[in-house]
Amino acid sequence: MITETAKGIYINGKWTSTENNKTFDIVNPATNEKIAEVPYGSGRDMKLAIEAADKAFTTWSQYTARERSSYLYKAYQLMLDRKEELASILTQEQGKPLSESRGEIDFAASFLLWFAEEANRSYGEVIPASKKNKRLMVVPQPVGVVGAITPWNFPSAMVTRKVAPALAAGCTVVLKPAEQTPLSAIEIVKIFNEVGLPEGVLNIVTGDPQSIGKEMMDNNIVRHVTFTGSTKVGKHLMKESANTVKKLSLELGGHAPLIVFEDANIDLAVDQAIASKYRNAGQTCICTNRIFVHSNIEELFLEKLENKVKQMKIGNGTEEGTEIGPLINEEALRKVKTQVGDAIEKGADLRTGGETWEGPGGYFYKPTILANVSHSMSIMSEETFGPVVPIVSFTDDKEVVKEANNTNYGLAAFLFTTNIERAISTMEKLEYGIVGINDVFPGTAEAPFGGIKESGMGKEGSHEGLKEFLEMKYVSLSLS
Ligand code: ADP
């Protein structure tokens, strides 16, 4: 048990409970044991949070960029000081191996540092006018109150990737973390509290997604909603945003292809395919979902991949050396089993895995490789979000790009080749917001992360990430 009743609702600088002191349980997915209880807030709590954020906006938006930056910088330092404690909480609520959780805390902190720096660079423009007596300017201003909705697969980094740029821009925030993993988000709010962030600037409401989400979308005080999660919920939020014409940043699902050309460094491609597919037990939106290998190297690639995957250590993320932790819940496990069952029934060749693992009682699935996969199998069109990879062979460059693009998703794609011309021409044809060339780890605070097509809109990280939370006010001055 992490705490008896974890704090969960923080409004206007105070931790509160909700109506009837209603709570819900947080469960460790590795053991299926309850680790904490958190308030089950509703739209009523979100409304209070929005009103607090609105009040705080009046003063926070008037702080100098340097003043805002100083809070982010202090939060960055405190987060790193607490790395071990935060990583342990993350692993307990989410399941990923401790080494990955430590990496996530570093990643999460990097957004605080980056936007502490970017806060000072929200420049405007002076436009040369076509009339002598006119002076034209563009003045960046914070959009207002921001609603942030975060997912369970990166419970810490997705919070800072949204909250840091919003605060840097001068916005105030109401945050709703995923119901599976609110504890890491709560810790981040505690950090901001400790560094003295003024009351009402950052508020959090845990609880009922539908009711909290509805208030966030209906309330016209909220001017921008930033969301990471499923395409299904993203589409729902898009519809809901129409009534009050809110700005949106959406990071949605993915179906990443990884293409291994004949001239690739095969050992590198194998290691990176494993890192991309199996980290977080396959539960990241840029995880490789389909591997396309040139037919001339397919057997060699498969052999090397299979040998390494068979040796991966599955277990509780708290045990050092664990490489594959549990899936987030029973529903996630069911989805993976269904996809693998469908593929095998339709003729896929199971090279390794393909079954659950009992372990300490949680939702484990063995790392799985499927060869001889065809397009009629659901795994080739649906996002997997589990440690399973289908392998398809190809012979023609043009054909493989067509196959890779044959999806409504457009988040990330990866390719392995030692031929620079092939790398560039393939990159240009891939319909994805992010392309990794011999690199499956493109995510970093200084670069723009975001998808196209049904993978979403807007960018997070980089100077683009700050712009999402700024309105460019155009000013025309007429001299007499
Ligand atoms: P997943 O299927 O991976 O859990 P979701 O899109 O359901 O992804 O969840 C991502 C985030 O969206 C979570 O914080 C979840 O609580 C939230 N969410 C789910 N449904 C709604 C909704 N109707 N309105 C607002 N937020 C929602």
From TrEMBL:
Single GO biological process annotation from the record: gamma-aminobutyric acid catabolic process
Protein origin, superkingdom: Bacteria
InterPro entries in UniProt: Ald_DH/histidinol_DH, Ald_DH_C, Ald_DH_CS_CYS, Ald_DH_N, Aldehyde_DH_dom, Aldehyde_DH_Superfamily
A Pfam family: Aldedh
GO terms, molecular function: succinate-semialdehyde dehydrogenase (NAD+) activity
Domain Aldehyde dehydrogenase: 15-475
Keyword Cytoplasm: no
Keyword set, alphabetical order: Oxidoreductase
SUPFAM superfamilies registered for this protein in UniProt: ALDH-like
Family named by the database record: Belongs to the aldehyde dehydrogenase family.
Name the UniProt record assigns to this protein: Succinate-semialdehyde dehydrogenase / glutarate-semialdehyde dehydrogenase
